[in-house]
Amino acid sequence: MNFAFTEDQMAFRDAVRTLLEKECPPEVVRARWEGKPTEVWASLSDMGVVGMTAPEDAGGLGMDELDLVLVLEECGRAALPEPIVEHAAVVIPALREGGGKTAQRWLPMLAAGEAVATAGLGEAPLVPDADRAALLLDDHDGCLHAVEMSACELTPLDSIDRGRPLFAAAWYAEKDTKVEADFELAFDRAALGASAQLLGLADRMISMTVEHSKEREQFGRAIGSFQAVQHRLADALLRLEFARPVVYRAAYAVARPGECAPADRSLRVSMAKAYAGDAATDAARAALQIHGAIGYSWEFDLHLFMKRAWSLAAAYGDGSFHRRRVGDWLQQREDSDA
Amino acid sequence: MNFAFTEDQMAFRDAVRTLLEKECPPEVVRARWEGKPTEVWASLSDMGVVGMTAPEDAGGLGMDELDLVLVLEECGRAALPEPIVEHAAVVIPALREGGGKTAQRWLPMLAAGEAVATAGLGEAPLVPDADRAALLLDDHDGCLHAVEMSACELTPLDSIDRGRPLFAAAWYAEKDTKVEADFELAFDRAALGASAQLLGLADRMISMTVEHSKEREQFGRAIGSFQAVQHRLADALLRLEFARPVVYRAAYAVARPGECAPADRSLRVSMAKAYAGDAATDAARAALQIHGAIGYSWEFDLHLFMKRAWSLAAAYGDGSFHRRRVGDWLQQREDSDA
Amino acid sequence: MDLTYSAPEAAFRAEARAWLDANVGPFRDASSNTADGFAKLREWDRLLFDARLSAVSWPEEYGGRGASLWEWLIFEEEYWAAAAPQRNSQNGIFLLAPTLFEFGTNEQRGRILPKMASGEEVWAQGWSEPNAGSDLAGLRSRAERVVEDGRGGWRLFGQKTWCSRGAFCDRLFGLFRSDPTAERHRGLTYLMVDLRAEGVEVRPVQVLDGEEGFAEVFFDGAFVPDQDVIGEPNDGWAVAMATASSERGLTLRSPGRFLATADRLVELWRARGDRSDPAVADSVVRAWMDAQAYQLFTQQAVSVLMAGEDKKMGAEASLNKVWWSELDLSIHEAALGLLGDEAQLDSDWLRGFEFALAGPIYAGTNEIQRNVIAQRLLGLPRG
Amino acid sequence: MDLTYSAPEAAFRAEARAWLDANVGPFRDASSNTADGFAKLREWDRLLFDARLSAVSWPEEYGGRGASLWEWLIFEEEYWAAAAPQRNSQNGIFLLAPTLFEFGTNEQRGRILPKMASGEEVWAQGWSEPNAGSDLAGLRSRAERVVEDGRGGWRLFGQKTWCSRGAFCDRLFGLFRSDPTAERHRGLTYLMVDLRAEGVEVRPVQVLDGEEGFAEVFFDGAFVPDQDVIGEPNDGWAVAMATASSERGLTLRSPGRFLATADRLVELWRARGDRSDPAVADSVVRAWMDAQAYQLFTQQAVSVLMAGEDKKMGAEASLNKVWWSELDLSIHEAALGLLGDEAQLDSDWLRGFEFALAGPIYAGTNEIQRNVIAQRLLGLPRG
């Protein structure tokens, strides 16, 4: 029994954080808002992050969700404006498991970051970052299909987060688009990936707000010395710190299918998504309230993180969707030995 | 349009408050806990409170729910250990409307307070203060029946509030026990009466806690000067002050059937019960937290009010029962002109 | 207690409803935070003014109808039920006008109010400064007393910020520090200034929704004549505070606004049918009830105001503020909960949510309102 | 990360489960807050002790098994899943014993621990005084240094209050002011005192549930020999605080306790079927999830403690405290919500709710814990 990450996992996480601090500051997120290309995908590809879940013989690092969850947390902290969850957490693993020609053809390109993949697996047919992607993983009649984006008709939608633009994609399911991989697992992976990013977003917004509240003075003292501000931030931290192990536990459940039946995996992922979404939207609320009017300003960076938090909290099932899934599981389980 | 009580209504309320401050201090509530008789019923009878809803020709004051709601608020503030809601808000009006022999016989005695009536109208068959009562109003197959307590088999139950002891009552429905009055209306009246008492209870607990927090010092200052304490009490007051007009509006709906269809009356009552229950249980929570350990002490009076609040919040439909009733109404209403 | 409307009140409701139905259409989607929308909404204010519906509670001489608070509530219910737009003139009508009625001169009222109501002159508020948000007494913008060519007045220096619609407004009202030697709450003067005057620079500020209605305003010697002082010089704090606790606490956000939004929430809920979660249903019911409670609380408060001689809300206005601002959030959160995954997309609900998030911040943060409730209504000691 | 239990851990779980199944029956409903229940629970502690299950994490020489924190968590899960009773010895085992392990002498440990674990000597805590609740540094009870007949020791004066089970306990530990001239946090000494000694009076205090386990304790010259000082005289604050931030933050309330209650909540929910409201269902799910999250947080914290050399929880213990105390309330509130009208009647759930309400108060109020989280974990400035 050991609920801890390895030194290697943490070192890789730290390296990604350092890279993103340098290469993905808020200006890069803003550039994506304005439709400009970013360089950060190439840097992440060079580092192996983009292909980390691909098999080594396809040029990847052969890593699993336990490695990935820490990395995605960092991507959330930076509000990375790229479909890293769909690409690395969903599509590559599905192709890896589904095998066949599609995998043979695409995995090396995806692992190298030369091609970008995205997915459309939510209740609503929303595909993030389809404008950046060459390959789409989507579901049809309960099955997964991989379709080249050039064969899709894309309609841009009005995403609340322009750093994560959304599209409707129309395409034709054919025999050779089918991928022999599990839809539920792909959905759980997407929800897990979003959860990890939400942790990073919550952490970032709490940090920003702590700094602000130490500096901003009202009534002759730093606002961070007021008990109301302290307790609000304490609550935000509490939610984050208890969401964290729940997300890590879900990553473990996905990474170790041998120890975990699919229903139990979905249970763990649902708990993760519910807690991480609440942690991030709560942190956003606290951050905006404590920043006051400045938090509203377009020029101030808070809204970049806040909108990503709202977007991801709603993506791949929101809190009430996932709590209902937990409730269904509780109603159906055979006895109380969970 | 005038959402205000009359001078007369407020004067009567004030008189009842004065009487109860004198005749129903916490020691009287404690006496009831220990099963001892109290004198306060007789005083309230002399004042006309007990029979206020009875017709004047039966010796009552012919008052309606708008008069009653303020009086019941005061009974709540005192945690009056008597079935005043069931007696004055439920049974007397039902007999008044049902008429017949039962009314002829009982109304004068109930109006004078010589006999006590109670009722058992909740989802669970719980009859408060049956040990004090000579007459029981209960429902059977959707109809109301008035049964002499001597014809009932009573089983004492373990009430959380021994100032409001509860009983199961077994009895036989017969032709001449039937009262031609509306069950739904009787239930709404009981819920309204409980709501009014809950307002008074919330008010009392907030006042007690404000006093305590001005006097109790920790870390060299009154605990009421800490922002966390201030905001908690501010929230309790906020809930109370917004519950208040909702309860008064429900009283108006019951008192003026000509202006209000039965479904709308139930809607108003459900809102009242949901808000008043939340206001009182929230006030109880804040009170206990701010009092700290002393609030736990049997000798300290807070628990008398807290347990009454818990008891009445659960009686005649708890918050989620009543919110569901509001939800059903919203789903069924024909258009949005509420 | 009598909760029926009189025949004239009912007739007024019918008139307002009919007029709004006939006229609101082309203006419904105009946003006062865009230049085009703002221009369109000047027309809308003019239309309302011509129908004497722009400021119904004002005396007739200024373009109102001398309507009672009940009629004002009726008008607001109809206005928002008709899905009519946020008005350009709201800061003028709900913030400046009550101050003018209480502290202004007849000359000021006659000169300012009709143009305010007709949309000819649109007012921005200038409460916030970079270092004075919640702490209004921390204001630093200065007003220097001058007499030039025999004309008495003030020269302004400094910066105001978060002026709603300031990018498009004509004039601004606010407090300026006129006696730098006085204590924090003293030495402030309540002034009205022309935003087109020399020495005034207006810089638009983009906010969350990307629109540019907000502005920062910089003063570098702009002149304000004596006739544009409200109340006594150096007494601005008392003027601002007195008005803040008047009816304004009641009229800043009318129940009608939230009742209409709550009804739209119920429509959304019903339209989504089984797709919505039972737990979300409870949040819909709670939000709808909270709007009802706000209406009832307001009706109760209006009854007190109508009965009393002194029309003051006092610290009760803080209860009001906390309730409506959190109610507004509850309604929009419930709606986003109903939308589920679709809440990733922009929508009126999302924009309403962003707007609602500001509620607990502006007009005195809810933290400060709770301090006021605790200290002034409950009598707890200052920290 | 490896979340599988080793074979010895699994075997220990099986052993504990089997032993508890076989033995807990007659003790299940005993309450340590009544005289009869307390007496019965002395027997229960003795049974546990004889099976070396009373304090599994202690070294074998004191009657434990030298179990790891993982095994301790396993034992707690099984203990509460078996619906075993609250123990008489909990304050001794979870509060005093960690202090003795860190600051006690070998003589003290050998003399005190085995009797504590076997139930022979039951310990009460003496933290609170009438004027020192949250503000522990406000303690006034005095310890006067004496040497009598060549025997060094202390004479105690003053009052302790809210001593859980104090009416029935044998001994008490707590802080006493030994140097009245020192600053608030200094001049306190950590002492252990015999409640049967001369100069000690124990008065039962009835609490919410009507039971009389709590006590006030009055000291009028009771004697404590030097051997019953823990740590250095006048250094009691440091002793108390150091232990408070040790593993104790973790072990005061084990996840197993809440997991078992949450599972009973789910059973209640399933048993009530359609009678429960969908909105209540959400509260059941949230509460159950919160118990799971507490287990995971604890597993993560234990992994850190097991890896590090310095087994300190530090300020993270405050996160822990706030979570479990509010979790306990959430579980019981959800249950009362399921009971609906029946919540008017006494039940285990209602008693559990009353007990849970104390959680945010004792062991440092949650207000103080949130101050600690803000100031020590987030680095915000003191008010």
Walk me through this protein's architecture.
- The complex is a heterotetramer, with 2 copies of chain A (338 residues) and 2 copies of chain C (383 residues).
- Chain A is an alpha+beta fold.
- Chain A has helices at residues 7-23, 26-33, 40-47, 65-77, 84-98, 100-112, 183-215, 227-255, 262-291, 302-314, 319-332, and strands at residues 117-120, 127-128, 135-140, 143-148, 153-156, 166-170, 178-179, 217-218, 221-222.
- In chain A, α1 (7-23) packs parallel to α4 (65-77).
- By secondary structure, chain C is an alpha+beta fold.
- Chain C has 3 domains: 7-88, Butyryl-Coa Dehydrogenase, subunit A, domain 1, CATH 1.10.540; 124-235, Butyryl-CoA Dehydrogenase, subunit A, domain 2; 249-377, Up-down Bundle (Butyryl-CoA Dehydrogenase, subunit A, domain 3).
- Helices cover 47% and strands 15% of the residues of chain C.
- In chain C, β2 and β3 (151-163) form a beta hairpin.
- The interface between A and D is large, with 46 and 51 residues.
Give the helix/strand class of chain A. alpha+beta
- How many structural domains of chain A? 2
Shape of chain A: globular
CATH architecture of the largest domain in chain C: Up-down Bundle
CATH superfamily of the largest domain in chain A: Acyl-CoA dehydrogenase/oxidase, N-terminal domain
- Beta fraction of the residues of chain A? 5-15%
